[in-house]
Specification:
The chain is of the alpha+beta class. It is built from 6 helices and 20 strands. It has 2 domains: about 200 residues, Clam (outer membrane lipoprotein receptor (LolB), chain A), CATH 2.50.20.10; about 100 residues, MucB/RseB, C-terminal domain (Phosphorylase Kinase, domain 1, 2-Layer Sandwich), CATH 3.30.200.
Length: about 325
């Protein structure tokens, strides 16, 4: 009871830090849901092309992305002035293409876009785990579990999200992004090479797993507050099959990928844990391999939280 009260008090303390008194309003779930639904529809129900500018304070980098959305296909984005690779999001997958050769470099589990908000099917989870504040054209999300601000979005006069800020634990700006150019009627002749690659993408996995398949998968017994299993599916990449587990609290994600192992294997399994610093914070990677079986974990958390999740991995039923 005391912990819940302290969390509420902390939310209001942080709220007073980020907003001018008297102008911000905390929305009830019933008030927040239609606002967020309209915002998501603006992002996903019309085609557009633009340039997204990023200030990454964790790496002291300044970047630009070219962004293309085609509502019947999906998202595509490319970092400008860097590699000649195009990322394409279709369904639950992120495809990477080499623009020079036109070849597909790989297929990866998708869990987060670098420049846009959550999807429509995340909204219930967002409202379950976050308090939503609205001030003028700005929406901010505070965790219900620790009271900290996690993300804020700025809308244009039509309700389209044109900027966002993500925050570190403690409430400092970690990454800011904004559309510096946005065209809702682009010349698709200039984007023909992108469209050709996007049209090659098709869902490659199945999301319904059998009882036998689930018994072969390692699941985390402990999860960060508010996180739950969002998707479980099988995908084929580079001639191998992998199980992918996507966990989310509505705004943040982590993924567990493990190869399909055809036989039963011992209950005990030793993994090699690797911590590496990546964009946006600590990226935890758990790597294990035994008789052809491999497993990896990716997500941005503080060291203590990430370690607890990784150490709790076990097969369903604790076997």
């Amino acid at each position: 009871m005391k912990k819940g009260l302290l969390s509420i008090l902390l939310v209001f303390f942080l709220w007073s830090t980020f907003f001018h008194r008297g102008f911000a309003k905390m929305l009830s779930p019933d008030e927040a849901l239609p606002l967020l639904q309209r915002m998501v529809e603006k992002v996903t129900h019309q085609n557009y092309w633009g340039a997204w500018e990023v200030d990454d304070y964790s790496r002291k980098e300044h970047r630009f992305y070219e962004v293309l959305f085609v509502k019947d296909i999906g998202f595509a984005w490319k970092e400008l002035g860097a590699r000649d690779f195009l990322n394409v999001k279709v369904g639950n997958y992120r495809y990477v293409f080499n623009l020079m050769s036109g070849e597909r470099e790989g297929v990866f589990p998708f869990y987060e876009l670098p420049f846009l908000p959550f999807e429509k099917d995340d909204l219930d989870l967002v409202l379950k785990n976050y308090l939503v504040y609205f001030q003028d054209n700005r929406i901010s999300f505070f965790s219900r579990h620790n009271g900290e601000i996690v993300r804020s979005l700025t809308l244009d006069e039509d309700g389209f999200p044109v900027a966002q800020i993500t925050y570190t634990p403690g409430g400092k700006a970690e990454n800011t992004g904004r559309f510096v150019y946005l065209d809702f009627s682009p010349d698709y002749r200039c984007l023909a090479s992108y469209l050709e690659l996007m049209e090659q993408c098709a869902p490659e996995g199945k999301e319904e797993l059998s009882v036998v398949e689930r018994k072969r998968i390692f699941f985390p017994r402990l999860l960060p507050p508010g996180f739950q299993l969002k998707r479980t599916y099988v995908v084929k990449s580079e001639g191998k099959k992998f199980y992918h587990l996507i966990y989310s609290d509505g705004l943040r994600y982590f993924t567990i990928s493990q190869s399909v192992y055809p036989r039963e294997f011992p209950r005990s399994f030793d993994f090699r844990l690797v911590f590496s610093k990546q964009k946006g914070g600590e990226n935890f990677v758990l790597v294990g391999e035994k008789e052809g079986f491999s497993l990896s974990f990716m997500g941005s958390f503080d060291v203590e939280t990430g370690a607890q999740v990784l150490e709790s991995l076990e097969r369903e039923g604790g076997h």
